[in-house]
Design brief:
heterodimer, A: 296 residues, mainly alpha, 11 helices, B: 645 residues, two-stranded antiparallel sheet
Chain lengths: 296, 645
């Protein structure tokens, strides 16, 4: 019992502290690619602290939902940290928790969208619309991958699903690669970062947020990235504590650096291009799912 | 006291009949008041009855022998049987709960209509409630069909009671015509069942359809089609999006929350009690269910009329219910009883939840209509400021239908997904589609809530006169929303209500107690264990909220919406509802095009061709020799058919 509480707290603290640090490391790497010296890896934390100190602004409208948006985004995301294996396995595992995780991820996004649409800024609404259009396809891809994973592991428990033990079927392997791609897309990195799209929509879905809310939004965004990378990593990092405790952070940093490098080399997609890319991904996922059901 | 409880199933009939009789003679606004008060009293009786049945597991059985109509008619048709078992009790609960709240709502809401046809409306409203109630408590196929038809008839008049409105008339007519075909199928199926499998007996008890017998298959097929048309399952759904917006909002809530669930009640009886569950029917039912989900979701997304959007979402949600039922049948026939039990539990849980949040949403849409007179999402906006309570109710109901944990929609969907994904094979693929559709639902209701309640208000000219809906309209909405929250946070309530209904279903009664206990244990354990993370989540959220409220109130800055630094006419800051998710829609053009082609083929082309053929045959009816030949052919066909039977 005591151990489990310690695991839970350790997981939570690790994620909450590391999420902005990982972004800091990424910034450093990106800067090096562009022949710059780059800021210190704690810069992201400094930025966040500065934003948390500022007063929050409010558009002159009834704005309860608008204010609650980032808060609920943050709290729903942090609830996921309790459920997925991070530094240690999650002690709160129960049947069907994987579905709860997917719903929590989707709900967190819904709250953010509701909040940003409630700011009544047209740019925010356009950004949110894009995000929602993307998220529908992403949800389909995730559902397909989930189906394949559950088929090959015959379990609805996260702790039993992960990691995928050999012999790994071909469909499962391809599904895991697909999961890597989807977790990149869900990270809202450059070719798919359409909701905010600084040059076009000047911030899009977070345009009207300032101060604390903006800080909270960015903080949640880093946590969200960490969650998606962790879900991807969980598929192959074993749950044995003494391997996991050093392999997981290293892989986490490596994958996020890789993602950062990919991002630095990419330009932004136009929304229809991004959607058609996602459509193709989901088609591949669908074919894989049918193959997995047949038994390949 | 005991004698009152013994006869309590009779009181709703009595009160509603009284309401029907009085509204025959009283016209105008008074009729509405009388019918809404009497209907709500009747619904309270229904609630007491259902609690008595479900919690204390009393069953009511009563048989009335009516005088035989004529010596030719079999005695069996003259017997009127009432049997309220747990399954009936569950549906009586839904009817009673939603009926009670909508009746209260109607008290004030009907003021917006002219007094002319209100007597007619009140008459039909009471009749509608009565026929729904009777349809679930009788245990006799013959009387079921009688009340089923009465239900169709009265609800059709409720849809089109404003006789001057051409649109309403057309919607009512369409609804009536389509569901009439459904009841013909139902009658055909019933005839085969009664004649072939039940020895001319119409009571539910003895029916055992042999699903391997070709005519038995036909009987189930006809019966299923008849039920499917009424519960708006694709491809028979087209009446629903027309009928619901035209009806008064609380009637839409009843239609959507309760009436389209009555066929599900009969389906459970059909597939679990009248026949033993077979895999073929499981596959058919779940396939139809998943198609319904996708169609409802994708069409709901593009609607710009509030009530039409809600109607399409009803189609989608009924799809979930049907899919759950189908999966349960598949799992049962594969002898996976535990999973089958979970799927059926999820189905009924979702059914109750849908009744709760969809009624709440229709009532909020009704309040918006009451206050602004508009259903157009392109024009509405910013009502959260003027109608705060309605907006809160709409928000929570929307979140519930999206499946946000820990609200009730999530809990039932989670139960369903657990059974889909554990089942593997076909249910798993369908589960993936259902998960996809639920993300579309989320987008749909983001659109619904934000366009009506939070967007900028500058397009609306009448804004200043908008008032919050009166109290009798607010209370039903808010209590429905409270129920949504409590059914999500305390899954033990629905568990207590639903489980008796399932475990008394005949096939589940016969399974080993152990198996049942595993299933029940799972439902109980899972529903409780799910709460841990949610409690922790609340533990995270509440301090954050307190922190936010404490820190931000003193020094907050107010500013206007940022418009790139230039002064733009505020009326230009408006994002119309029809532009929502345009990019997504453009990626699904193939879907929308092909379904409109299918619509053209089946709804426009084929009826036209049939009409032409019929018109060309009609003149022939004046030719006696031709008609004579036709008669002989028909006679020969009948003889062949009878021989075969």
């Amino acid at each position: 019992m005591m151990n489990e509480v310690i695991y839970l707290i350790a997981n939570m603290c690790f994620a909450l502290i590391m999420a902005p640090l990982i972004d800091g490391i990424e910034r450093k790497v990106k800067a090096r690619i562009q022949n710059r010296k780059g800021p210190s890896i704690f810069q992201t934390w400094y930025d966040l602290i500065k934003m948390f100190r500022k007063p929050s602004g409010i558009t002159g409208r009834p704005a309860t939902l608008y204010k609650l948006g980032p808060l609920l985004y943050f709290s729903y995301l942090s609830a996921i940290l309790l459920l997925i294996p991070l530094l240690f396995y999650s002690p709160l595992s129960f049947i069907g928790d994987i579905i709860l995780v997917i719903y929590l991820l989707a709900s967190s996004r819904i709250f953010l969208m509701l909040g940003s649409i409630s700011s009544t800024n047209p740019y925010s609404i356009i950004g949110s619309n894009r995000e929602i259009s993307l998220s529908i396809f992403e949800e389909l891809a995730i559902a397909e991958i989930l189906g394949i994973i559950i088929l090959s592991t015959n379990s609805l428990l996260i702790n039993n699903i992960f990691p995928a033990v050999p012999p790994v079927k071909a469909t499962l392997l391809l599904a895991l690669i697909l999961l890597g791609i989807v977790s990149y897309i869900e990270n809202q990195r450059l070719p798919f970062e359409l909701g905010e799209a600084e040059p076009e929509l000047s911030g899009g879905s977070v345009l009207e947020y300032t101060g604390k809310e903006l800080g909270l939004f960015y903080y949640s965004q880093y946590i969200r990235r960490l969650i998606y990378i962790s879900i991807f990593l969980d598929t192959f990092i074993p749950q044995t504590i003494w391997i996991r405790i050093w392999l997981y952070p290293i892989c986490l940093i490596l994958v996020s650096m890789l993602f950062g490098v990919v991002e630095a080399l990419m330009g932004r997609y136009r929304i229809d291009h991004a959607l058609s890319f996602l459509k193709k991904t989901t088609l591949i996922g669908g074919v894989l799912l049918i193959a997995a059901v047949i038994g390949l | 006291m005991l004698s009152i409880l013994n006869q309590i199933f009779f009181y709703p009939i009595l009160v509603l009949s009284l309401s029907i009789l009085t509204t025959c003679f009283i016209k105008g606004r008074l009729a509405v008041k009388i019918s809404s008060i009497l209907a709500s009293i009747a619904c309270v009786f229904m609630l007491i009855l259902s609690i008595n049945v479900l919690i204390y597991s009393n069953t009511y059985t009563q048989t009335y022998v009516l005088r035989s109509f004529s010596p030719i008619v079999s005695e069996n048709f003259a017997i009127f049987r009432i049997n309220i078992d747990n399954l009936s009790g569950l549906f009586v609960f839904v009817i009673g709960l939603i009926g009670f709240l909508t009746s209260i709502y109607s008290y004030k809401y009907m003021d917006r209509y002219s007094a002319e046809h209100l007597g007619f409306y009140s008459f039909n409203y009471s009749l509608f409630l009565l026929s729904m109630y009777m349809a679930v408590i009788v245990s006799d196929l013959f009387w079921f069909i009688v009340f089923w038809e009465l239900m169709t008839l009265s609800s059709q008049f409720l849809v089109s009671f404003e006789k001057e409105k051409r649109k309403a008339l057309w919607a009512g007519y369409k609804y009536f015509a389509i569901t009439k075909i459904g009841s013909e199928f139902l009658i055909a199926g019933t005839l085969i069942i009664i004649v072939l499998f039940n020895n001319y007996d119409t009571s539910y008890l003895g029916i055992k359809i042999d699903s391997l017998h070709p005519l038995g298959f036909l009987a189930i097929l006809f019966f299923f089609i008849g039920l499917a048309i009424k519960s708006a399952i694709t491809p028979f759904h087209s009446w629903l999006p027309d009928a619901h917006p035209e009806a008064p909002s609380h009637v839409s809530a009843l239609l959507s929350g309760v009436m389209i669930k009555i066929p599900v009640y009969m389906m459970i009886r059909l597939f679990y009690m009248f026949t033993s569950p077979s895999i073929i029917w499981g596959v058919i039912v779940s396939t139809v269910g998943v198609i319904t989900i996708i169609i409802g979701a994708l069409y709901g997304l593009i609607q710009t009329d509030t009530k039409r959007l809600l109607a399409y979402s009803s189609i989608e949600q009924i799809g979930y219910i049907i899919l759950g039922l189908g999966t349960s049948i598949i799992l049962y026939s594969e002898k996976l009883y535990v999973l089958s039990l979970i799927a059926l539990f999820g189905t009924l849980y979702h059914l109750i939840n849908h009744a709760l949040y969809k009624s709440a949403l229709f009532l909020t849409a009704g309040s918006v209509v009451y206050s602004t007179g508009s259903r157009d999402m392109n024009k509405l906006g910013g009502l959260a400021k003027y109608m705060p309570y309605t907006s809160i109710a709409a928000l929570i109901a929307s979140l519930a239908i999206m499946g946000i944990p820990p609200l009730n929609g999530f809990m039932s969907k989670w139960t369903l997904y657990c059974s889909f994904f554990s089942a593997g094979g076909l249910p798993l693929i369908y589960g993936v589609f259902a998960l996809f559709a639920s993300s579309i639902t989320a987008s749909m209701f983001i659109k619904y809530y934000t366009t009506v309640f939070t967007r900028s208000t500058h397009r609306m000219k009448i804004n200043e006169n908008i008032k919050e809906a009166p109290l009798t309209m607010l209370i039903p909405q808010l209590s429905l929303v409270l129920l949504c929250i409590s059914f999500g946070l305390l899954p033990i309530i629905p568990y207590k209500i639903i489980l008796p209904a399932i475990t008394r279903i005949e096939p589940f009664e016969n399974i080993f107690e152990n198996t049942i206990h595993v299933g029940i244990g799972f439902i109980k354990y899972a529903n409780v264990s799910m709460l841990y993370p949610l409690i922790l989540l609340l533990a995270v959220t509440i301090p954050l909220l307190v922190l936010a409220i404490l820190t931000s109130s003193p020094n907050r800055i107010e500013y206007d919406v940022w418009t790139c630094g230039s002064r733009i006419d505020k009326r230009l800051i408006h994002y119309p509802a029809q532009s929502y998710f345009k990019e997504f829609r453009e990626n699904f053009t193939e879907f929308y095009d092909s379904s409109s082609k299918l619509y053209n083929l089946f709804v426009v082309r084929i009826p036209r061709i049939t009409q032409k053929i019929l018109l060309s045959i009609c003149p022939k009816s004046e030719d006696p020799s031709y008609m004579f030949t036709l008669t002989i052919i028909v006679l020969i066909l009948i003889v062949i058919l009878l021989r075969w039977v």
